[in-house]
């Protein structure tokens, strides 16, 4: 497993140093005091473990509930204002979006069946300087490369002096 920065070995070294320090403390304190210290350390470690367990359970629950929408559900896409320069696609199910030179869709794309459900695509104000595509099930969508859509639509690039 890799983590940003790849510094997992530091965690291992820190754990080893802490364990060695606790071992030296227990040796110097004697058996009776070491037993008391072990109880205190155990209580704090249990509290830390409980906190990690609660955090991971909440995180996992959010990931599961925030995953893919149910098949056949209702989807609402809304844009409210803004200035959009790139292509805008509002759809429920989008498969195989390509940019650049047009390619023929494969047989699987042509024969795919739509799932039941509805979609509502709305635009409430805003400025659009490129393609706007609204649909329900979009398969084999080809978007022109950057800069081509505006030229195809007959818009001119404005220069500021």
Short key terms for the protein model shown above:
alpha/beta, two-stranded parallel sheet, 8 strands, 161 residues
Mind explaining what this structure looks like?
The chain has 4 helices and 8 strands. The two termini are 53 Å apart. Mean pLDDT is 75; it is low at 149-161. The chain has 161 residues and is an alpha/beta fold. The longest helix has 35 residues, at 31-65. 42% of the residues lie in helices and 22% in strands.
Brief summary of the model shown:
By secondary structure, this protein is an alpha/beta fold.
Shape: elongated
Query: Looking at the chains present, what oligomeric state does this protein adopt?
Result: single chain
Helix and strand succession?
HHEEEEHEEEEH
Assign the structural class, choosing from mainly alpha, mainly beta, alpha/beta, alpha+beta, or little secondary structure: alpha/beta
- Supply Rg: 29 Å
């Amino acid at each position: 497993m890799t983590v940003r920065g790849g510094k997992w070995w530091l965690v291992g070294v820190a754990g080893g140093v802490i364990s060695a320090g606790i071992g030296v403390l227990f040796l110097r304190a004697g058996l009776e005091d070491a037993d008391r210290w072990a109880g205190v350390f155990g209580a704090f470690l249990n509290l830390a473990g409980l906190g990690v367990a609660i955090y991971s359970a909440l995180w996992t629950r959010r990931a599961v509930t925030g995953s893919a929408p149910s098949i056949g559900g209702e989807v609402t896409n809304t844009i409210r204002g803004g200035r959009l320069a790139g292509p805008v696609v509002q759809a429920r199910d989008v498969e195989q979006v390509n940019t650049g030179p047009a390619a023929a869709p494969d047989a699987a794309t042509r024969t795919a069946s739509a799932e039941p459900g509805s979609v509502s695509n709305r635009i409430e104000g805003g400025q659009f300087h490129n393609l706007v595509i609204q649909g329900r099930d979009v398969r084999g969508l080809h978007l022109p490369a950057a800069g081509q859509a505006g030229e195809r639509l007959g818009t001119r690039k404005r220069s500021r002096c």
